[in-house]
Amino acid sequence: METESEPYVRLASLRQLHLVVAQLSTARSLADTLQTIADGVVEGLGFEIAAVNLVRPEGDLVVAAVAGSQGAEAMMAGRAGSRASWDRRLSMGEAWGNLRFIPYTEGWVLDDDDVPQWHPAGPAPQSGDDWHPMDRLFAPLYASDHELLGVLSVDKPRNGRRPGAWGREALQLYSSQAAIALSNARLRSNMQRALVRLEREQSALRASEESFRQAFEYAPSGMAVAEMGGDQHGRLIRINDALCRLLGRPASAMRRYSFSDIVHPEDIGTLLRTSAEGGRAELRLARRDGSYVWVSLRNSVVADTADGPRFLLTHVEDIEDRKRHELQLAHRASHDSLTGLPNSAELRARLNGRLCARPAPVVSGVISSAPGGPAAGTDGNGFPGLGFEDAGSGVLASTGMYDPHHTHAVPPTGNVQGEKGLAVLFCDLDGFKSINDRFGHNCGDAVLVEVARRLSAGVRDNDTVARMGGDEFVVLTDGVGPAEAQDLAVRLRNAIIPPIRVDGRAVRVGASFGIGWAGCGMTAEEVLQSADQRMYVEKRSRSKGQRRAG
């Protein structure tokens, strides 16, 4: 079963992976892109050495970039290996998805071929999962048409072990983005050369136009040319087949639009900034069937030194699969893998999102939950000069930033009729350990899944049900009073009590609930600890038999 620390490690790894992937789009040339790819492996993927082997026009592969070791760079940089030797390597060893791992027990036959190689010094492995200095791990870089662009080779994991499932998945995702960056860098280089020829070589205008047309029309990703300035600013005047296929629209129809007509309403600001300044953006474009597709859009302003901007050249890359993969990775990092519920890290994030650093202000003896408390510079009664509010009120615990629309969370006092607050129901299952001990963890896991389902079915759509770990669950429910919270705890306990059928047998668990109240000025840990303590008080107040019966 997953430990509580794993989501934090994965989330940190995911953030680092996002950072190095983002760096791929900042390189301005093919050489910069190659070095950025190698550097990203060392900076974000847990390997100490990386090299990019680039396919040359004649077919062999040259070591174009090395990161992490001056010795490796001195030994390999600029040297080439034959395509036949590389094809042999990519057919050996173990296939880890798109990766190719050659253990040292098989790789000795490659020691004398013509591929440049450098092996770091290191201890012999102590177990089967330890990394050997002679182990080899390769990530082929393929274009969208499956053309081999190069091979990314990595070595010497920082933890001294062969990558596990998470590390392999991260390396595969990074290599796919590196291939896109490399393909785009080559395409941009070709396009820029074509555009320079169009501007500077008037004598070869027709040949340059044909070169541009072919690069534009037969580009594997979408390309478009739009007008700049005047009444028709932004109108598409030229669209290639790849973009028409991506959006499911014929070229004749596309020429009636600008990108602002088909961009998702939430992304219009991003599009306008990119169109005005050039550069890159990720946004959603509408297909003919009404659905939206995520694309990476890169604009280049083609200018004339005399007349100013002439038109906008736009490169559109389909990134739908990558976005879906990112969402899946983010979901795995913030949700429990067994039950699918938010995990403890996500629960704390949601709880912190409702709490600010200062308790709700008291106005005339009544705690106020209005956004931001009394007006800044007043005493709560509208009179200036007393400086009641300070920078702490409305500063969210989750971001550390001031939110003027923040509504204070106030624990009910019981003195005012109709009080509402943010209730935290801490649930601990009774009798669960005996099920694990008697019937095994598979049965216990099935019970946890069913309990999670019953809890989720018993709350409102805007409530949160999270698994803290083990047999502990937490429910966040906002806008309820003490009686409503107590009633909810009773209903959820009654929902858990009925027998649960697992593999033909009926098992039962009970549940103990503790109700805490979240309030601004408290931390998420304090809120959860309060509810946890109340749960144990409630558990001890009942006999063991009563607890098992719910």
TrEMBL record:
Residues 420-550 form the GGDEF domain. CDD domains: GGDEF (cd01949), PAS (cd00130). Gene3D superfamilies: 3.30.450.40, 3.30.70.270, PAS domain. Pfam families: GGDEF, PAS_9. It comes from the Bacteria. Residues 279-331 form the PAC domain. Residues 208-290 form the PAS domain. NCBIfam families: GGDEF (TIGR00254), sensory_box (TIGR00229). This is Diguanylate cyclase. It comes from Streptomyces nanshensis.
